[in-house]
């Protein structure tokens, strides 16, 4: 194949352009070398300035800004070298778009530099203010106290960071304007306008909240100290030691108790003065916080909070009335219960269980005076709880306690019936035994069992426990006894029953001390 036909025209056409090609290559090579040198120099300068480190200190996150800037400088010089090489080759159609791009970039450089300068100025101002505020707060003891009390990082660092970003936010519209970022600048300006409009409201809310906190704290200390000086804290000790009042009385027939000295105040009880101070603090601080929210014009939060506060304030009189009812009832009931217990002891009520044969079951803490004391306290407090629940609107609690009171009254009535029945059963047993002698001990036991059965049925009936079962059992028992008697005396066994009855009557007559002697 003959290559001369192809090579000869190519040499003829390129011969005149070889100097231009060599010049373009040299221009591009020199531009590439300059771009590499500029990239290295830019990266070195940025590292010497510590741009990445300073950005990390300001933002708290690692951001590599050095390499992107160096790469941008590199490609900017490469773009200029490409345009120069294309112009050397007389390729205007290819170099014009790149020339326009380079002119746009170079035309934007002043705005870029202005934006960077404003960013640097804002960063310097924010950094200086953050350092000054942080140092000022660290010099005071308030930072350490808040950190130790709240268990969190020092507040000086957080306040400094907030101030830093606030300054950067204030400079943000100017920075965006310098960068000619109009699409982003509009929303930012609107946001800054709204934020600046809220600054007076924020200061007003902060001032209201601070004043409310100070007033609430002062009132808490005042109320706590006044109530403590008035001796209100001793009420908690009386609540704890009120149960021992009945035990510290005169000796009874079964037990001997000695009044123990009251325990010293260990600080473990409820401090009523501190509790009242805390309630006053809450009642003052909560309206202050709601007023602060109103100053912020945040109705989505302030309106529900206002409604909640209104309900709380409306409930305060009822709560106070309920507390007063319970406290007054406690003291009055304790006084009456103690007086009743001592009265029962003085009249010898504690010796009654010994007389009726229930000394083992009703002694010590279950003696009559003690039971009467606790019964009075229990029912008085239950009535107080019913009234307090009605004041507070807890109607379900009121109904439950009312039912419990009714049931308790039935239990007490049934218990009294059982005690009286037991006493009557023992009295009947003793009377039959003394009147008939030892030969009729079985009859006395039958009488006692019968009385106890009737009394137990009456007691359970009074208590309201299984009324149908009690009625059925009692009816079946009486019916069985009646049927047995009818069968024994009415059918076929009349002669034997008559003889047995005659035998029992003769024995009873002989055992009577005033019976006449048997006739011969």
Q: What would you note in describing this structure?
A:
By secondary structure, this protein is mainly alpha-helical. Among the domains are: about 15-195, no CATH class; about 195-250 and about 270-295. The protein has 17 helices and no strands. α4 (about 65-90) runs antiparallel to α5 (about 90-140), α8 packs antiparallel against α10 (about 270-295) and α15 (about 440-465) runs antiparallel to α16 (about 465-490). The radius of gyration is 52 Å and the shape is elongated. The model is unreliable at about 245-270 (pLDDT under 50).
Descriptive key words:
mainly alpha; 0% strand; 520 residues
Gist of the model:
The protein is mainly α.
Layout of SSEs?
Layout: H1 4-14, H2 18-49, H3 51-59, H4 66-88, H5 92-139, H6 142-150, H7 155-178, H8 182-229, H9 234-241, H10 272-296, H11 299-346, H12 352-355, H13 368-392, H14 395-436, H15 441-463, H16 467-490, H17 494-511
Helix pairs in contact: 2-4, 4-5, 5-7, 7-8, 8-10, 10-11, 11-13, 13-14, 14-15, 15-16
């Amino acid at each position: 194949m003959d290559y001369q036909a192809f090579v000869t025209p190519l040499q003829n056409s390129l011969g005149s352009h070889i100097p231009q090609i060599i010049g373009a290559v040299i221009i591009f090579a020199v531009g590439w070398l300059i771009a590499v040198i500029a990239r290295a120099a830019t990266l070195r300068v940025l590292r010497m300035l510590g741009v990445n480190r300073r950005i990390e200190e300001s933002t708290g996150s690692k951001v590599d800004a050095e390499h992107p800037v160096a790469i941008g400088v590199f490609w900017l010089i490469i773009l200029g070298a490409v345009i120069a090489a294309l112009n050397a080759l007389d390729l205007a159609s290819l170099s014009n778009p790149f020339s326009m791009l380079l002119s746009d970039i170079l035309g934007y450089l002043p705005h870029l530099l202005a934006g960077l300068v404003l960013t640097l100025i804002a960063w310097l101002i924010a950094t200086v203010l953050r350092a000054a505020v942080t140092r000022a707060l660290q010099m005071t003891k308030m930072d350490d106290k808040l950190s130790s009390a709240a268990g969190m990082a020092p507040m000086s660092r957080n306040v400094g960071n907030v101030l830093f970003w606030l300054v950067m936010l204030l400079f943000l519209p100017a920075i965006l304007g310098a960068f000619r970022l109009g699409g982003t600048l509009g929303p930012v300006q609107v946001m800054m306008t709204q934020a600046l409009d809220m600054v007076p409201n924020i200061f007003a809310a902060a001032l209201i909240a601070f004043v409310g906190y100070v007033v609430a704290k002062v009132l808490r200390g005042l109320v706590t100290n006044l109530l403590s000086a008035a001796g209100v804290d001793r009420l908690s000790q009386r609540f704890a030691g009120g149960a021992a009042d009945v035990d510290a009385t005169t000796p009874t027939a079964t037990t001997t108790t000695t009044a123990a000295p009251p325990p010293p105040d260990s600080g473990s009880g409820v401090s009523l003065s501190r509790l009242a101070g805390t309630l006053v603090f809450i009642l003052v601080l909560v309206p202050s916080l709601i007023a602060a929210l109103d100053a912020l014009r945040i109705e989505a939060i302030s309106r529900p909070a206002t409604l909640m506060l209104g309900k709380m304030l409306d409930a305060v009189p009822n709560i106070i009335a309920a507390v007063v009812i319970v406290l007054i009832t406690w003291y009055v009931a304790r006084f009456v219960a103690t007086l009743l217990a001592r009265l029962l002891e003085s009249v010898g009520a504690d010796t009654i269980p010994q007389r009726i044969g229930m000394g083992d079951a009703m002694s010590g803490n279950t003696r009559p005076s003690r039971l009467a004391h606790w019964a009075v306290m229990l029912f008085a407090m239950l009535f107080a709880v019913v009234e307090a629940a009605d004041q507070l609107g807890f109607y379900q609690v009121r109904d439950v306690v009312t039912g419990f009171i009714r049931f308790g009254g039935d239990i007490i009535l049934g218990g009294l019936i059982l005690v009286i029945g037991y006493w009557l059963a023992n009295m009947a047993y003793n009377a039959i035994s003394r009147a008939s002698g030892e030969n009729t001990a079985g009859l006395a036991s039958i009488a006692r069992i019968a009385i106890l059965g009737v009394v137990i049925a009456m007691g359970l009936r009074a208590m309201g426990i299984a009324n149908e079962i009690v009625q059925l059992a009692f009816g079946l028992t009486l019916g069985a006894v009646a049927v047995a008697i009818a069968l024994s005396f009415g059918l076929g066994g009349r002669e034997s029953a008559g003889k047995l009855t005659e035998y029992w009557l003769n024995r009873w007559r002989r055992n009577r001390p005033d019976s006449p002697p048997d006739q011969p």
